[in-house]
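for the writeup, i need someone to sanity check this before i put it in the appendix. the sequnce is what the collaborator sent (i think, or maybe the updated version? ugh). structure was predicted straight from it, no edits. if anything looks off just tell me and ill rerun, i have time this weekend
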Amino acid sequence: MQEKQKINIVWFKNDLRTKDQISLFKASQEDLPFIALYIFDEDFYQKKQFGFRKIGKFRAKFLLESVQNLHYNLAELNITFLTKLGKTKEIFEKINEHYSVQKIFFEKEFTQEEVDLEKSVSSVLPHVKFEKSYSQFLLEPDFVFGKLEKIPALFTTFRNKVEKNFSVRKPLKIEKRKVFFELEIPSDKIDLEKLGFEDFETHPDSAFPFSGGENAAWERLHYYFEETQLLKDYKNTRNGLVGSDYSSKFSSWLANGSISAVSIYDEVKKIEQKFGANESTYWLIFELLWRDYFKFIALQHRNEIF
């Protein structure tokens, strides 16, 4: 019997990007070939809570666009991408039938359902090493918990403690692979209908007329920072409600990781060097700290926050 080929897996979840992608960076430092994987978990799309689905059609379409764009960007780097629809545990089992999976690299999460999903995968792949990395924060957790024994109940207290002398790492660059790994397992063709939704057109008057994906996130950043220099008025306009230009609109791309908070911070610093710093450039970083704060609250309190 022929020995199965050893491979690693980069399991994409809410980190759907190729720039500043820690799991991709770590996997690319290893000698083994690796594949990128995204799973549309059928339990998530079927499950209801209080009579409502856990995801709506707008978010589902944005996510689909993000995964499609990720496929394109991974191909540019010569990285094999597998997309599957089904039960996460069973898909990992299937891959392990064809290959000998050595390591799975993925974003470290800390809320209940995500942790349970991770445990279900480890239960069927007990000999596989899990390489987890925090990649959704602006500030490194080690830095924050070095400053604070626990996350305070007030954001201002948190900010005053961490804002002094904090440093943010530089975004990671992923190099193009020399060899494309041919995978025996085919990807599933997935559209809105497969996820249980009817297709639709975005309303022409929408204040969020944007597509999902890493490329769209970076297009928005360059438009907001350099083409229009709207960033310089961010503090004054950020709470507006009409139109697409009153705020950065980064939230949706940040939520599924099409762009990292670290990359946005790095670009703000470049703009400050080019055009000068002001209250608004600071305020965008201030809002990224707000985002970190709520994530650290979830990290500390887990299910107790409910």
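The beta strands are 6-12, 34-41, 48-49, 52-53, 81-86, 100-107, 129-133. The first strand starts at residue 6 and ends at 12.
thx in advance!!
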